[in-house]
Amino acid sequence: MPKLTPSTEDQGQQQEEQRQDNEPLPQDELEPGPEPERDELTEALDELRMHEERIAESRRKIAELEHDRPLWDAAARARERQEREEEAARRAAAERQRRREDAEALARAELEHREEQAERERRERALEAEARAKAEAEAAERRREAQRARWARGPWTSQRALERYRVLCESFDETARPASLAFEDIPWPTLCAPFTFGPEDIDWAAVETFFHTVRGHMRGQDYRVFVEKSHRRFHPDRWSARGLLAAIKDDDVRGMIEVAANTVAQALTPLWREARGQ
Length: 278
Fold this sequence. Notes:
Layout: H1 8-22, H2 27-30, H3 36-151, H4 158-174, H5 204-214, H6 220-233, H7 236-242, H8 251-275
Helix pairs in contact: 5-8, 6-8
């Protein structure tokens, strides 16, 4: 049987069919169609699985918390203990502060009491000193009046000058720190009649004349003691220790008396050495 040769038309049709067979199919034709029942089941299963996973995670966390509960309880107890200790410390600090404030208030009250007492005592001492000074001034004035009356009578001699000097020395030496001092209260070694001379009349010559004159009225040993006591009586250090110049209120009078006292002390030094045989 002879072989049939396809016609040109049949060949073209066959090539077209082969080309169509080789082309890829559309995506919608390749993917399977929707399966509603399977998708709902899968979603339900997934949701159930996720729910179980959440439950498992919650149980795991609860287990961790239960495992760590002793630590949390210990930490809570430690916090409570720390809070109690801090509260106790605050109360102790507040109590110390209160006690300190009470002590300071008590100390201030005691200090004020002592200051008030010291002020009262100071005022009392001032009043006593004022009264004592007034009494001493009145007594000194009475002595001066008595001296005026005593030494104004009769003629004035070297014997009476020596007697007056000794009387004034006794009253002058008995008061350690007089509250007041006047020119007439000082036993100036001079032969001048009382109340007839002033500070400017106390010079070296007057002192020497007085001691050279009264020397004839006493024995040698008595004269040496007499000069030695007079030398100590007018020594500047002794006057300073007794506060004699401070007892003189008037500045001008104080200056003149200081000069006169220093003159007597200087004049007595060679007399004292001579009496001691130096």
